[in-house]
Amino acid sequence: MKEFKYTITDPVGIHARPAGILVKEVKKYASSFTIISPEGKEANLTKLLAVMGLGIKQGQEVTIRIEGEDEAAAAEAIEKFFKENF
Description:
alpha+beta
């Protein structure tokens, strides 16, 4: 299992357009992805509405957990995606 924390810097938080792109990105990997909100709520990163339902805002720290056969490569790629888009 790989895990990283990221503080959202986008003024709008996690919103529809980049979240949709994120969902497409994680589907490229065999691993499972979970996003955990500051309140401890969890959502599968392949489910757009679940991710949007967390209501993550600017300044909040989220935890991303990756588990699976390609977790090392997936974690690196998704962490880079967060830095570039959120």
